[in-house]
Design goal:
single chain; alpha+beta
Length: 79
């Protein structure tokens, strides 16, 4: 029984720890598709740096989404 409780605790704790690792959110422009999007800083593949252009770095997902909406409204990006 203890094994199941420990396993359940680890499974439930994993998503929270992954969210805690996202210390910054980026608004990026994909040069291939000409679209902009928000990604967690640790989700951006380092090997594809030339494909993406960083437009801004923000502390929260809400700030990054607001910035993306502003860029779309100005015509600087497509979603």
């Amino acid at each position: 029984m203890k094994k199941y409780l420990v396993a359940a605790a680890l499974i439930l704790a994993t998503p929270q720890s992954l969210l805690a690792q996202a210390d910054a959110f980026l608004v990026i422009h994909d040069n291939t598709t000409n679209a902009c999007r928000v990604v967690a800083k640790n989700d951006l593949p380092a090997s594809q740096g030339a494909r993406y252009k960083q437009l801004g770095q923000y502390a929260s997902m809400d700030e990054a989404t607001a910035a993306l909406d502003s860029l779309i409204g100005q015509g600087a990006c497509t979603k």
